[in-house]
């Protein structure tokens, strides 16, 4: 990995870059934990609606079971050099109760509508409370770009 020559971005540029990635990317790593079973991490497709991350998974998944016991989650975009970490509380929506605009946007992005599947699915919504973003060591300082749900300038 090439890290030399990395130019340190200011907070506003990190925010713009992060928002661009949230719109463009397909996969996010979702980390949850259960009080009895410990940590669990999986990649899921996601949609960014401008305020929250929407994911969808089988209603019987460990992710859904964990979120119902402990709603605090961490999300990570899959790039170890251009790091984006989001933290927030997850909320579950059974596929028959998900807001229509979120479900339609999700189906539009992926060409797959979980509401039309035979088995039950759950949409998981996470509104970030904090976001960290950095590219290599030069950006470790100042990596917090959202705190307490507010984007920093």
Automatic annotation (TrEMBL):
GO terms for cellular component: cytosol. Keywords: Oxidoreductase. The lineage of its organism: Bacteria, Bacillati, Actinomycetota, Actinomycetes, Streptosporangiales. Pfam families: PNPOx_N. It comes from the Bacteria. One of its GO terms (molecular function) is coenzyme F420 binding. Residues 26-134 form the Pyridoxamine 5'-phosphate oxidase N-terminal domain. This is Pyridoxamine 5'-phosphate oxidase. InterPro entries: F420H2_bilvrd_red/Heme_oxyg (IPR052019), Pyridox_Oxase_N (IPR011576), Split_barrel_FMN-bd (IPR012349).
